[in-house]
Amino acid sequence: LEKEHEEEMESQRKYIRRAYRKNREAFLYFLDELHDQGKLHSMSLWVDLFSIISNDDRFSRMLGQPGSTPLDLYKFYVEDLKARFHDEKKIVKEILKDRGFSIETDVTFEKFAEIISTDKRATTLDAGNIKLTYNSLIEKAEAKEKERLKEEARRQKRLEQNFKQLFKKLETLSEDTKWDEVKDQLETDPDYQAVQPESERQRLFSEYMTTITQACLHTQNKRRKDKKKKKKQTVQQTNQT
Prior knowledge:
Keywords: Coiled coil
Pfam families: FF (PF01846), FF_PRPF40A (PF25432)
Number of strands: 0
GO cellular component, one term: U1 snRNP
Radius of gyration: 39 Å
Oligomer: single chain
Region (Disordered): 216-241
InterPro entries: FF_domain, FF_domain_sf, Prp40-like
Strand content: under 5%
């Protein structure tokens, strides 16, 4: 009788363990369904999906049983999706390359997703990883554009500096010199032609002339101050004698 009792107890334990396992498998299948529907992906948060998950019987049957909780299984599921990111990013880049589509800073996610969805390989990709790949490629495009703008600014600055250097070669340049008076003397120079359009040349000329005027005023003020200082020192020396 004792042996029969032990066998019966063991049979019950196996039955319970099997029931627990089936509950876990059913819950994982439920997560697969949510993933296939696009509701669950690598960027999903438990708190955002809890209202959907908690209303399903497959969640309820998991409550109270030992081992992994629904939250544990959810976290493991999402981590597995995240682990696929680098491989899926390669697939996305291959699709873009095959479609001849390059990512620029103004490409929207909607347009990006539209291009990706035209390829049958996209059916195996996680929606969250597609979004993360988009974010990564946009970030790279923005960094590239930022560097391009910096290089363009450096190039423009060099052109402006070279252009202003031309004025230093003019012996007749004074505070009253007008643009039309110097234009004919410079227009064959490559540094002159490198600056476009004509309005930009005039702006740089005006800027240069303003600098000269300010420099002249500074020099004149300094001379007046030095003259006053010298005169004051002379008076003091005279009084002391």
